[in-house]
Amino acid sequence: MKRILHVFVGDDGRLVGTLHYDRNGAREHAAFTYDETWLAAPDRFAIEPNLPLVTGAQFHRKAPEGSVFHAAIADTEPDGWGRRVISRDHAKRRQTTRRAGEDAGSPRLNAVDFLLAVDDGSRVGALRFRDESGVFQRAAEADRRTAPPQVHRGR
Questions:
Q1: Cα–Cα–Cα angle for 68, 107, 116, nearest 5°?
Q2: Is the sign of the CA dihedral 91, 121, 1, 47 positive or negative?
Q3: Which residues lie closer than 8 Å to 123 by C-beta, 6 or more apart?
Q4: Tens digit of pLDDT for each residue in 24-61?
Q5: What percent of the chain is predicted at pLDDT more than 70?
Q6: Mean pLDDT, to the nearest integer, of 64-69?
Q7: Residue 123 belongs to a domain
Q8: For 148, which DSSP code?
Q9: Which domain holds residue 13?
Q10: Is residue 48 part of a domain?
Q11: Is residue 110 a contact partner of residue 1, using CB atoms and an 8 Å limit?
């Protein structure tokens, strides 16, 4: 399963780069690429020391028990408690979907699912993420609850 997310900074949504995520079985890989307009901007900056201002994909090696993402992006992921809350919500929504006779999707959430399950308006730090459909994560539902993690089936 591959996902491509656009990474923005600040309330004005200034494009910084692209996050590429790939999962093949239990293996997960991520790479970040700065956008050319970001690199050409006079007020550009590296979003972390391990992501220098260079062109091309910059890969991150996942440490055991670590994040698949570079530290600046990993800092926006939910903590252990947040992951438990998100997992429980996901399980409840899957159960409701199954009871309705619909396809409940994957039982397991991956690193991107957790990353995108954090409400964009309350995410720690200045980074924002937009999915392949052009939607900033996560949009609030009509009942003012935050939307569930969007589990994407393989592409």
A1: 45
A2: negative
A3: 76
A4: 887 889 999 999 999 999 999 999 999 999 999 999 87
A5: 85
A6: 84
A7: yes
A8: P
A9: 2-130
A10: yes
A11: yes
- Give the total residue count for the chain: 155
Query: What is the C-alpha to C-alpha distance for residues 16 and 36, in angstroms, rounded to an integer?
Result: 9
Percentage above 90 pLDDT, the chain: 36
Which residues sit opposite 108 in a β-bridge? Answer: none
Q: How many domains does the chain have?
A: 1
Instruction: Say how far apart CA 118 and CA 125 lie, in whole Å.
Output: 12
Cα distance between residue 82 and residue 132, in whole Å: 24
Task: Provide the residue type at 112 as one letter.
Answer: V
Q: Residue 34: beta bridge partners?
A: 17
Q: Which residue has the tokens 């954090």?
A: 118
Q: Flag whether pLDDT at 140 surpasses 60.
A: no
In order of 40, 65, 94, 151, the CA distances from 3 in angstroms are: 26, 22, 22, 11
Place of tokens 């992921």: 77
